[in-house]
Specification:
It is built from four helices and no strands. It is an all-alpha fold.
Length: about 100
Amino acid sequence: MVKMTFTLDQPTADRLRRAAARLGKPQSQVVREAIREYSERIGKLSEGERLRLLQVFDSVVAAIPARPVAEVEEELRAIRDARKRGGRQRRAPDGA
């Protein structure tokens, strides 16, 4: 174990004492467990964030137009052909 010193505001210190008393654990153990749980959540979405992103996903998927596969493949083929030719060919404006 490594001994460390921290400064906590009074409400946080009170919460720590109450949590330790309620759990019947030493305050240092409560702090260790809290830090472990907190570090495991870093980078993960909260439930609210997860639900919001699912709603966005559902709305985006619903907005995808339904097109026949053959039509999509033809469009992709035309794009690939245009890229091979150096991009889309534009006509010069009149008088140029």
